[in-house]
Structure formats: C-alpha cells, structure tokens
C-alpha cells in the first residue's frame, strides 16, 4: 500500500479505537491538520531517502577515489565537508525552529477554518465581527504559517548556497594554493579537480534534502504526539455473544473531567435501569446528565465502580460486545447519509414505514441504502436519526434531549406513543429531558444535581392497578 494511505489508515484505526474522551481532548481540528498536512510531509521527507542513499554512496566512492589520487587533498576535502556540516547545524536549527512555529500555526489555522465553515452565518451578519475574525484569527494564522515556512526555507537555502561556496573554495584552494606547495602532475591535478567537482553534486543533494527532512521530522513528532494522546482502548475488538439481561446496574460509578481547577466529577452513581421501563434523567444545566449518558453508553471510561448488563459485568473482553446492546441519539449526534450495514429487503421496507410514521415519508426516500437528502431541518434530522435507531433494534435506547427540536405534535408523538411503543417491545429506555410536562410517562425519574443523583422517583401502581403515582426516594449525597 502507498505510504501516505498506510499512514492515514493507521490514524483512522487509532481514532476509531481511541476513547471518546481522548478524541475530545485532542480536538477534531488537530486531527484534521495531522491527517491532511503531517502525513504528506512525512511521506515527502521519506521520499528523499533513496536520493540520500545514492548521494551518500557517490560521496563515499568519490572520496575514496580522491584518497587514491592524493591523500592530502582527500584530508582537505574531508575537513572542508566536516567544517561545512558543523557550520550548517546552526542555520539548520534556526530554520527548523521556524518550521516548528509554522507547524503549530497549522493547528490554529484548522481551528479557524472550522470556525469559518461553521460560523459563516454569524460572521456574515456582523461586519466588525467578520473583520476581527479574519484579521486576528484566520488570516493571521494563514500568514504566520506562510511566513514561518518561508523564513525557515530562506535560512536553510542560504546555508545550502554557503555549502556550495565552501566546495568551490576547496577547489580554488587546491588549484591555486595547494599546488604551489605540493608538486602534482597536470593529469593528477585535473583528476583531483574533476573529483572535487563531482563531490559538490552529492553534497549539495544531501544538503537540499535537509529542509524537507526537517519538516518531515516536525510532522512525524506531531503524528507521534497524536498517537501518544490517543491511547488505544484495551478492549477486545471481537464481538462475543453475551447472556441476556433485564437490568442494567450502575454501582459506585465515578467519572471526572478536567484539571483540579475546573474539574467536574460525576458520581458515585448507583442506579438500576430496567427493561420494559422508561427512565427519565432530569436536572439543571450542567448537572451531569449527558456525561452520565456517555458513561452508560460506554464512551467515557469510568474511573471507579462497575456497569453490568444483567450478569455481564463490563470488562475489557466484553466492552465492545456490550456496546452492541445500545443505540443512542446524543445532542451532538451525527447523521450519516447512508444506512450503514446489511439490511434485508423486509427491514428496508420496515424502515420506510418508520419514515412515514415520523412524518418524513414525502421528504426522504431511500435508494441503494442512500437517503435522497439529509438537507433537513434540525427536527427532521433527529426524526431520521430516530428511524435509523429503530432499524438497529437494540436493547437499550438513550435519547439525550431528543425532543428539544421537535414541534408540539412530534413532541407529543415521541413521549406518548413512540416511547411507550419501544417500552412495550421490552426495551430499556433512558430519556434525558427538560420537558417536565411529560415526566409522568416515566416509570422512574432520576434527578441529578452537581454530578450526583439527588432523587429517584418511581411510578407505583395502586392495588387496583388503575391509578399511577410517582413515589420519590431522595438519595443522600
Ligand atoms: N468535554 C468536557 N470536558 C470538560 N468538562 C466538560 C466536558 N463536557 C462537559 N463538561 C462539564 O461537565 C459538566 C456537566 O456537563 P453535562 O453536559 O453532563 O451537563 P448536562 O446535565 O447534560 O447539562 P445540559 O442540561 O445543559 O445539557 C458541566 O459543568 C461541563 O462544564
């Protein structure tokens, strides 16, 4: 496989195997910069190696020939090469500092490009904001990348020309000074000068490769940095069949983000999520609901405690297998334009039924598993995502503020018909919601505050099984 492709495939594999928390920390802009810039720079650097080998071998042979012709000239030429190489170290170092600065600006440039692409609407509406953004961010980073790379190249190129000068100085010294003190035949002198002229070419090729090698070296460090900051999950990639389960048990679960200054700690959390039940997780902004949902969906690796799907306690052997129990629509969900996976014609027909039920029948059609469009309103996109999760037919559904973008009709449909229908299929459902109008459809309402469960209300039925009420259990912090 081509080297560039191989490097990229390695990075893709690392991304898919890395914990979401590490990907969040590295950031998508940095990853894009590495995939688009560093990989090709490293490969360009590596491509100079055959030339370097050929030039080095030529140099060794020509020096050998020079040694055979005249040992003293050989010593002079070798000393000149050594002197040239040593005096080359300083400009090379300064040049590489500029390349490094330029490379760091590429990360910032990618962040700015993302802001330009995603913030176009906001920038268009406010001229001052737009000008400030272009001057202080986008163009600033663009020109800094250019200027730093230019400065680095100018310094190293000047050093290369200085290297050429040294080789001509050596030739001049031998032709005009050396022969005055060391008698040498004309044939020998022309052979020596020819050899010295031939030395100049491989030396200059070796020096010319240095800027590319320097850039490649900096990019290689950036790639290694990505690999160091994206640890591979230790979990087995093999999907094994697990025992069936009725209750998802969270015990003493703890997770935290950030440093000691801006740390947010979740837990300890003790909670049971049952199949055939709808569990609402509610609470104020920043109380930890979404964080808990990402720990439950096995995206954030919990630091303490345990998660068990029935008797299957999550561990490295079954983590990926346990993930296959879950289907989730997070607030930052991604909608693929294709149904990924192998689905039978019957399943695809069912999917079309879901589209109709969700009011998308005349908006989205599907051909060869590709949606006719995903240029939809936010609410429609979420409905399409919901249809996809139905098709996945998993055992645990997690909906993080799914209904937030829905109009009253679809909100009502979601809470009063869709959720009960999923529940009746024997699934476990976790709904993160601020829609207190619909809390009564929940079998269990878990209220969170500052990363902890404040209370759990459970729906109890009277002896006559006719009326239902919520019984609240307050959990001691
Ligand atoms: N990637 C992250 N890195 C560091 N801190 C984070 C990260 N994501 C969330 N937090 C912090 O964790 C806390 C809980 O956030 P979370 O998104 O879980 O709250 P939430 O209850 O879902 O809020 P909301 O109702 O606003 O969606 C917040 O204080 C937030 O600042």
From TrEMBL:
Q: Which CDD domains did the record assign?
A: ABCC_MRP_Like
Indicate the segments forming the ABC transmembrane type-1 domain, all copies: 1-215
Q: Which GO terms describe its cellular component?
A: ATP-binding cassette (ABC) transporter complex
PROSITE patterns, A to Z:
ABC_TM1F, ABC_TRANSPORTER_2
Location in the cell? Cell membrane
What InterPro entries does the annotation carry? AAA+_ATPase, ABC1_TM_dom, ABC1_TM_sf, ABC_transporter-like_ATP-bd, Cyc_pep_transpt_SyrD/YojI, ECF_ABC_transporter_ATP-bd, P-loop_NTPase
One GO MF term attached to the UniProt entry: ABC-type transporter activity
Q: Which NCBIfam families match?
A: cyc_pep_trnsptr (TIGR01194)
Supply the name of the protein.
Answer: Cyclic peptide transporter
Species the sequence originates in: Pseudoalteromonas peptidolytica F12-50-A1
List the taxonomic lineage: Bacteria, Pseudomonadati, Pseudomonadota, Gammaproteobacteria, Alteromonadales
